[in-house]
Amino acid sequence: MAKHPVPKKRTSSSRRDSRRSHHALSAPTLVECPECKTLRPPHRVCPECGMYDGKQVVEA
């Protein structure tokens, strides 16, 4: 019968929480559209007016 590895000591809450320190979610970055002033993700076509880099690229 095979023996399975088992932790000798319980993982402390401090150690466990330190490991999870990078798990937090961050709010999405939003910038103001220079044309219609609505918030949109950077480097994306504006969903409201269809402008990107000063050009009309999508019919809104």
Summary?
By secondary structure, this protein is of the alpha+beta class. The chain has a domain at 28-60.
Explain what the structure shows.
This protein is α+β, with helices and mostly antiparallel strands and about 60 residues long. The chain has a domain at about 30-60. Helix content is about 10%, strand content about 15%. The chain has one helix and four strands. It has a two-stranded antiparallel sheet with strand order 1-2. A two-stranded antiparallel ribbon has the order 3-4. A hairpin with a 2-residue loop joins strand 3 and strand 4 (about 55). The chain is elongated, with a radius of gyration of 24 Å. The model has no long low-confidence stretch (mean pLDDT about 95).
